[in-house]
Amino acid sequence: MIEAHNLIVQKGRSTLLDDVSLKLQPGQLTAIVGPNGAGKSTLLKCLSGSVSPSSGTVFWNEKPLNTFTPEELARKRAVLSQNSSVQFPFKVRDIVEMGLNPHLSTGLGQKSAEADALIRQSLELAEISALRDRTITSLSGGEQQRAHLARTLCQILHRQNTALFLDEPTSALDLKHQHGTLQLARDFAQEHNAIVVIVLHELRMTLQYCDQAVCLQQGRLVEAGPAKEVLNSSRLAELFDIPERIAKDLTRSFA
After folding, report:
1. pLDDT tens-digit profile of 38-92?
2. Interior/surface letters 94-132, b for 16+ CB within 10 angstroms, e for the rest
């Protein structure tokens, strides 16, 4: 379990997160939702240990996250950032293999049958096996996003009780691969007993695939709980400042 206690993040005079507390359970896909500037990516970074809060604490199984070394964290959780880019013409397979770097000290990162199997499986899960020998710079934006997803999966695919943090992983994807990515995230949570947290703007897909939802507004936690209960039409209308009729249309299929 991951628990956040009273997280506050300040940058200059701005408060990006304001006293946010929540719990994340393994085996579930949790979405962080809210309007632009609500603090979604900041919360994801705090929960993953990528950013230290100004005050408050994140615990992983009752151990403060800031007591883990970077190497320990990298072997326990993987993070797909919103803007993952590579400027050098590495082959896709080599990009995915970089996910094994945290495990070099265990020997897994070397050229081995186990490493090859993990790379192959990650490519298959992200549906980019056919692109394995292409250079990353020759791919479309959506293809690059899927390559980085495969790298992220490769980092923890061989382990149980891990965590996967995905920041808008569907932003550059076509409709087919948006659904495929969210189904993959949900399956990964269940099959690996993993904590999977995802920042999403696609509310219908959030309702379709996510078990839990965390609603943020202006850095504050509005509510957290089962997605279909939390993301009702009244709350969506208020959270996103949209007409009730539009919010009702978004939720109609999941009522």
Report:
1. 999 999 999 999 999 999 999 999 999 999 999 999 999 999 998 777 778 899 9
2. bbbbbbbebbeeeebbeeeeebeebbebbbebbbbeebb
Token pair, residue 15, equals 């408060």
3-class DSSP assignment, residue 80: strand
For 15-37, write each residue's pLDDT tens digit: 999 999 999 999 999 999 999 99
SS3 per-residue string spanning 133-150: CCEHHHCCHHHHHHHHHH
* DSSP label of 91: B
How far is 12 from 248, CA to CA, in rounded Å?
Answer: 38
Alpha helices in the chain (DSSP H): 40-48, 70-76, 92-97, 113-125, 141-156, 175-191, 203-209, 227-230, 233-240, 244-251
Tokens representing 63 are 């151990």
Distance CA 166, CA 78 (A): 9
The three-point CA angle 52-54-60 to 5° equals 45
Are 222 and 232 in contact by the 8 Å Cβ rule? The answer is no
The string of pLDDT tens digits covering residues 120-138 is 999 999 999 999 999 999 9
Report CA 71 to chain centroid distance, whole Å: 19
3-state secondary structure of 185: helix
Residue 204: per-residue pLDDT: 92
**Residue 110 exposure: Cα atoms within 13 Å on the Cβ side:** 4
Task: Note the pTM of the prediction, 2 decimals.
Answer: 0.94
Pairwise CA distance, residues 197 & 79, whole Å: 10
